[in-house]
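Morning, I've got a small favour to ask if you have a moment. I've been staring at a protein lately and its backbone has me curious. You're getting the sequence in one-letter code plus the fold written as C-alpha cells. I've dropped the whole record in just underneath, so have a look:
=====
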Amino acid sequence: MSLSALTAVSAVDGRYQSKTRDLSPFFSEYGLIKNRLLVEISWLIQLSESTDIKELPAFSAQQKQQLMALYEDFTPEKAQQVKDIEATTNHDVKAVEYYIKNHMKKIDGLSPYLEFVHFACTSEDINNLAYGLILKQAKESVFIHEITNLTAHLRAMAHQFAGDAMMAKTHGQPATPTTMGKELANVVFRLERQLDHLKSVTIYGKMNGAVGNYNAHICAYPEVDWPSLTESFIADLGLLVHPYTTQIEPHDYIAETNHVMIRINTILLDLCRDIWGYISNNYFGQKTKAGEVGSSTMPHKVNPIDFENAEGNLGVANALLAHLAEKLPVSRWQRDLTDSTVLRAMGTAFGHALIAYQSLAKGLSKLTLNTTVLAADLNANWALLAEPIQTVMRRYGIDNPYEKLKELTRGQTIDEQAIKAFVKNLDLPDEAKQQLLALTPATYLGNAKHQAKHI
C-alpha cells in the first residue's frame, strides 16, 4: 500500500496534512537531510578558510558556490539518493557524507580533498546542529507567525467587544460583571508574554567531537584554535556555541522551547474551553456554511467543533512536548541513542500544535456575539449589585454591610425593585445613594472597557 494522506499512520500526515504541510520543509526526513547537508558543507568551507589547515587550500568563489548549490538545490528526489546510499551504509549521517563526496568529485579541483568532508566530526556534531537549525527555522517561519496572528485576532476581538457587558461566573455561579472584550484581553496579555519568551530562547549547538573535548581535532591540528573556529562556525549558522558538552549537545534549549510552547498551548486550551462554554450559553453564536452539517441525526446543531478540535490537538501536542522536554536532556554517561529516535517525534508534537492553532483561528472567525443574551443574563441577576452596595456601605461606616446583603440576596431571586428598595433605606449621603440607584448589572464594570481597549 503506497503512502498517502489516506494511508498515513499519523493524523499529522494524514487527515490534517493540509494544515501541517508548512512544517514539511523542516521536520520531515527530507528537511533533516537537507540541514545535515548544510552543516557538512558549511564545515568543509570553514575548514578551507583556516590558514592553519595547510593541507586544505582555500576554495574559490566558484567552488564554494557549487558546494552550496548541493544544499540550495536539494529536492526530495535528491534526498532519495541519500536514502539509497543509506540502504548500503545503514548509517544516515555517513550517507550524507558519501553523497557530498560523490558530488565533490564532479567539481573541478576538489577531488583531492574528499576526506575533509566530516573532518574530526562525530555524527552528533552534524545532527545537533541540523536539529537546531530545524527548530530555529520552524519557530521563526511558522510558529511565531501563527501565534502572533492568533494574538492579533484576539486583540481585535478584545477591542471590538470591549464595552459588551456580560455576567462573569466564578465557580460556575453568577459573579461580578465584566466585558467579553476584557476577558479576551486577559488571554492576549498572557500570550504576548509567552511569545516574548519563545522568541528569546537561545538555540545552542556543538562541534567538539566524540566526547566534547576536540580530541581528534587537536590530535590532527594542535596549532588550530578549535574552540574559536567552531564558535565562529556555529555563529555563522545563526546558533550559539555550547562550550561544555559530552558527545551530545544536552538539549536544554529544546526543553526550554517546549516548556514555553506548553504554556502557550495551555493558555489556548483554557481559551478553547471558555469559548466552548460561552457558545453553550449562547453568548456566542457561530456563522454557518452552506453544505455543512453539525450532527448525523440532529439537523439543527451547529457544534463548536473547531474549539473541540483545537483543545484535543493542544492536549496531544503538550503530552509529546512534555516528554521531549523531560527525556532529551537526559543521556547515559557521554552518549546513548535514546534521544535520536525521540527527536524524530518533534515534528509530530509541533504538528499537533499547528493543527490546533489553525482550528482555533477558524473557530474564532465564525463567532458572533449575542449581546441580547448577555443583556438578558445581566438583567436577570440584580443580586450582582450586592458587592458594590456593601462596599459603599463599608465606606460610610454602616454596621455589618456584608451580612445584611447576604441576608437579602444569598439563595434568593432578587430583582431591580428589591435592590433599589434596599438602597433607598440606607443611611448614606445622597450623592452616594444616587450613584448606587443609577447602577445596573450592565454598568457595574469597573475599568473593564478601558483594559480591553488598551491591550
Observations:
- The first strand starts at residue 165 and ends at 170.
